[in-house]
Design brief:
- By secondary structure, this protein is of the alpha/beta class.
- The strands form 3 sheets. A 6-stranded parallel β-sheet has the order 4-3-5-6-7-13, sandwiched between helices.
- β11, α9 and β12 form a beta-alpha-beta unit.
- α2 packs across α10 and α7 crosses α8.
- The longest helix has 22 residues.
- It starts with a helix and ends with a helix.
- About 40% of the residues are buried.
């Protein structure tokens, strides 16, 4: 009788153990095992995307997610081919930083049709196949920088002076165009600010040449607006080469070199995104989507407006 009772207790304990094991899968696992996520960036030649990649890998390590990665270096055909390969390899989810916002739509919708969640980061892809967008609200960030500039002009009694602003931007980049639109929108009612024609500046070398040309054609220019990191650095190099301290830069994406420019006064103010946090959020969100959680269609990661007052809080000497 005693042996039968012990046997019954043991069987009940074993049954409970099995039931617990079957129901205790972690948030980043499906029943069949480790999750696999395909990641295609725009390029790893820019620090901003390197930082996003770092955030994705950090979160993947923490959550035990396997990554398949691709750097198409701004080549749409290579990116589409890589995503199709991810689909063939039966990934559980995708993180995509589109090289061409419209060009990736067919492969995004192909993945969605197969039930694969697609999280886009940094660049918006206008398709119902996208699960969610994660990144900076670029128009609003540009507007924030524009409002800062407007207030600066008022506080420094420049509201009555004629102010000329040169523009260095990538015409092909939807992200950069949204920033520029937001910046200009904030200054629409400031009658003394004149924007020169938009000039090209995707990489550092092109941006430097562009600003050199602006200085030659418009020696009375007062400020340069640069819509991305390389535009800022190219502008900074041109101003330093010209040995002028009368012209200041406003722009996006602070790194150590730009931080020095803020400290020495060549750069008036910049918007700093949080790319590593964008990457972490993207990975965690795609895992949530894989596991059936309800996801907001847009997840904005906050930005930091940086000037001489707070630059040392983020970039120590």
């Amino acid at each position: 009788m005693f042996m039968k009772k012990n046997l019954l207790v043991a069987m009940m304990a074993f049954t409970l153990l099995i039931a617990t094991a079957c129901s205790s899968g972690t948030a980043n696992e499906k029943e069949e095992g480790q999750l696999t996520v395909g990641v295609s960036t725009i390029t790893l030649q820019h620090q901003f995307f390197i930082e996003i990649d770092k955030g994705i890998k950090k979160a993947a390590d923490e959550m035990g997610v396997k990554l398949l990665t691709n750097d198409p270096n701004q080549d749409l055909a290579k990116q589409v081919s890589a995503v199709e390969d991810f689909i063939q390899k039966d990934v559980d989810g995708l993180i995509l930083m589109a090289t061409d916002n419209a060009g990736v739509i067919p492969v995004v919708e192909e993945a969605d049709g197969l039930g694969i969640p697609v999280v886009t980061a940094d660049a918006v892809v206008d398709s119902p196949g996208v699960t969610t967008f994660i990144g900076t609200a670029n128009y609003e960030a540009g507007e924030e920088l524009g409002n800062y500039f407007k207030k600066y002009l008022e506080e420094n009694k420049k509201a009555d002076e004629k102010i000329k602003v040169g523009v260095v931007t990538s015409i092909k980049s939807l992200v950069q165009q949204e920033r520029l639109k937001g910046f200009k929108s904030a200054l629409e009612d400031v009658n003394n600010v004149e924007f020169l024609n938009d000039q090209p500046g995707y990489d550092r070398e092109e941006s430097m040449r562009t600003v050199e040309n602006i200085l030659q054609a418009n020696p009375d220019v007062d400020y340069i607006f640069a819509s991305a990191e390389n535009g800022v650095l190219g502008s900074l190099a041109a101003l330093e080469s010209a040995k002028t301290k009368d012209i200041q830069i406003l722009g996006f994406d602070v790194n150590k070199e730009a931080a020095i420019g803020i400290k020495n006064g060549h750069i008036l103010a910049m918007i700093q995104q949080q790319p590593e946090l964008i990457g972490e959020t993207a990975l965690k969100t795609v895992v949530d989507a894989i596991n059936g959680k309800e996801i907001d269609k847009n997840i904005s990661v906050p930005v930091i407006l940086m000037d001489q007052k707070n630059v040392n809080d983020h970039f120590k000497d």
